[in-house]
Design a protein that fits this description.
alpha/beta
């Protein structure tokens, strides 16, 4: 089993928000992603989707975009991004797409791979970080603690632990944060994140304290999936 990842698809099958308004590279971006996906992913592989899957505002709009991934191979694991307003009560999300896996402060295990996930938030030191951001940052760190509590109950010797988070868990200088501390304390092997767009520099892969970090926003990766494992 291989593990792949991609994030920030920003699909709009039931909402009027085409992504090509953000630049010509976004034109036909979903078709580019699907073509690469079919070339790379096997039926037994795992694909991690790091949030901002759909522009939909209502549950049915978001699920329409999620279900458009059904014909593509692999087992699919999602977390919520800051634009996934369609993502309501987790029970309703899971009922709407029972063949997929949706993480919300918890984990899922496939063979010897455990994936723990939560949305995360902007970290201290980020531009225009506010006291409100700090409240959400602390809350999201607590949610990751809950996710790792569950992961550690199912993780066995030799298992690989992957953390799936929407927001980058540190800044460009890779400073320590509550998220990176939790990753290190819980023996995370790989971290997958997204959220970042545009021309600003941020490495697609880097190492911190022996943990591999992967930025997988689809425009950053030229609308291709990244091999994580």
């Amino acid at each position: 089993m291989k593990v792949w990842a991609i994030s920030d698809l920003h699909l709009s099958g039931r909402s009027d928000k085409p992504m090509d308004v953000f630049g010509p590279e976004w034109e036909g971006h979903f078709e580019k992603i699907k073509a690469d996906w079919r070339m790379k992913v096997g039926e037994d592989d795992l694909v991690l989707l790091g949030g901002d899957t759909s522009w939909g505002m209502k549950l049915e709009e978001g699920l329409f975009d999620v279900l458009s991934l059904s014909p593509l191979p692999g087992k699919k694991v999602f977390i919520r991004g800051n634009h996934d307003f369609w993502w309501s009560a987790i029970s309703r999300v899971r009922e709407g797409a029972p063949d997929f896996f949706f993480l919300q402060n918890d984990c899922v295990k496939f063979g010897n791979v455990v994936v723990a996930g939560s949305r995360g938030w902007t970290c201290p030191g980020s531009e225009n970080f506010t006291e409100h951001d700090n409240v959400l940052y602390l809350r999201e760190a607590e949610r990751f603690r809950l996710a790792f509590e569950k992961a550690n109950k199912v993780r066995e010797a030799g298992d690989i632990l992957i953390a799936l988070i929407h927001y980058p868990p540190f800044g460009i200088k890779k400073e320590d944060t509550l998220f990176t501390q939790l990753f290190e304390e819980n023996g995370v092997n790989k971290v997958v994140f997204g959220h970042l767009h545009g021309a600003g520099y941020f490495p697609l892969k880097c190492d911190k304290a022996g943990i591999d970090y992967f930025l997988t926003s689809c425009d950053k990766t030229k609308f291709t999936l990244t091999e994580i494992l």
